[in-house]
UniProtKB/TrEMBL annotation:
NCBIfam families: modA. The keyword 4Fe-4S does not apply. It comes from Halospina denitrificans. GO terms for biological process: molybdate ion transport. Belongs to the bacterial solute-binding protein ModA family. The lineage of its organism: Bacteria, Pseudomonadati, Pseudomonadota, Gammaproteobacteria, Halospina. It holds the Pfam family SBP_bac_11. It comes from the Bacteria. Molybdate binds at T62, I170. This is Molybdate transport system substrate-binding protein. Keywords: Metal-binding, Molybdenum, Signal. One of its GO terms (molecular function) is molybdate ion binding.
C-alpha cells in the first residue's frame, strides 16, 4: 500500500506542476503576414496559456512566405494576407486539402503621423504637396495591391509615379511613414490599432468599394494535431474577437 501511496503522491505533484497542460506539448511554427503582427501575438499568447503548446511566429510578406513554403520552409501553418497564396499551396499539394479558411478581412487606411494632414475623404492624394507616398509592393503584398487599386480608381496611379515608395511588406511600409521617410502612406488599420485607435496623426479609412476585399486566409502546411488545434483556435469565436479588437472586419 505504501508503494501505491507514493505513486499517487508523485502523480498529484506532477499534476500540479504541469496544470492542465499536456505533457506532449509541441512547438508550432507559423508563417504570418506582417499586418497580423499584433493580433497573432495576442492569439498565440492566449493559445499557449490554454494548451501549453508553444507558437513560434515568423512575420513577413505573404508573397515571400509563399515562396519559402513552396521551397520546403519548415512551417506548420500559414496565416496569409490573401486568398490566392493559400489556394495555390493546396492546389500544388504543398498544403493540406480542406484546411483553408478565411479568418479575417483587412481594412486599408491612408495615414500620416502629422495631425490634419490627411483629410477624411483622401483628397490629399490629389491636392497635397507631399513628396513621397508609401505603399506595399503590389506584387508581393495584398495591401499593396489594394492601395494600387485605390490610386487607379481615383485616376492617380500615373500621377503618383516618382513619388511612390514601396515597402517589401506592410510592416516596412508603416515604418516608412512613421519615421518620416514618406509624408503619408497606405497602411493596415490593424497597425494603427496597435498604436491605440488611429494612432498619432491623421487618417482616411479607405472605403472598401475602392478595392477588392482583403480577405485573409489560413491554411495547414503540415498535418499535426497541435497545428490543427491552433488553426481551430484562430477560426473560433474567441479568435475572431481578437481580430475585431485589432481593427479587422468580419469575413
Amino acid at each position: 500500500m505504501r508503494g501505491n501511496n507514493r505513486v499517487l503522491v508523485a502523480l498529484t505533484i506532477l499534476f500540479f506542476l504541469v496544470g492542465a497542460h499536456p505533457l506532449w506539448a509541441d512547438e508550432i511554427r507559423v508563417a504570418a503576414a506582417s499586418n497580423v503582427t499584433g493580433a497573432a501575438r495576442a492569439l498565440a499568447e492566449r493559445f499557449e496559456v490554454e494548451t501549453g503548446h508553444e507558437v513560434v511566429l515568423a512575420f513577413g510578406s505573404t508573397g515571400k512566405h509563399y515562396a519559402q513554403i513552396r521551397n520546403g520552409a519548415p512551417f506548420h501553418a500559414f496565416l496569409a494576407a490573401d486568398v490566392e497564396r493559400p489556394r495555390r499551396l493546396v492546389e500544388e499539394g504543398v498544403a493540406v486539402d480542406g484546411s483553408r479558411f478565411t479568418y479575417a478581412r483587412g481594412a486599408l487606411v491612408l495615414w500620416s503621423p502629422e495631425p490634419d494632414y490627411v483629410d477624411a475623404a483622401g483628397r490629399v492624394l490629389k491636392e497635397g504637396s507631399y513628396r513621397y507616398l508609401a505603399l506595399a509592393n503590389p506584387r508581393l503584398a495584398p495591401y499593396g495591391r489594394a492601395a494600387r487599386q485605390v490610386l487607379e480608381a481615383r485616376g492617380l496611379w500615373g500621377a503618383t509615379e516618382g513619388r511612390r515608395v514601396m515597402g517589401e511588406n506592410i510592416a516596412q511600409t508603416f515604418q516608412f511613414v512613421r519615421t518620416g521617410n514618406a509624408e503619408l502612406g497606405f497602411v493596415a488599420a490593424s497597425q494603427l490599432k496597435v498604436m491605440g485607435g488611429s494612432g498619432e496623426g491623421s487618417c482616411w479609412r479607405v472605403p472598401s468599394s475602392l478595392h477588392d476585399p482583403i480577405d485573409q486566409q489560413a491554411v495547414l502546411i503540415e498535418d499535426n494535431q497541435a497545428a490543427r488545434e491552433f488553426l481551430a483556435f484562430v477560426g473560433s469565436e474567441q479568435g475572431r474577437a481578437v481580430f475585431r479588437e485589432f481593427g479587422y472586419e468580419a469575413p
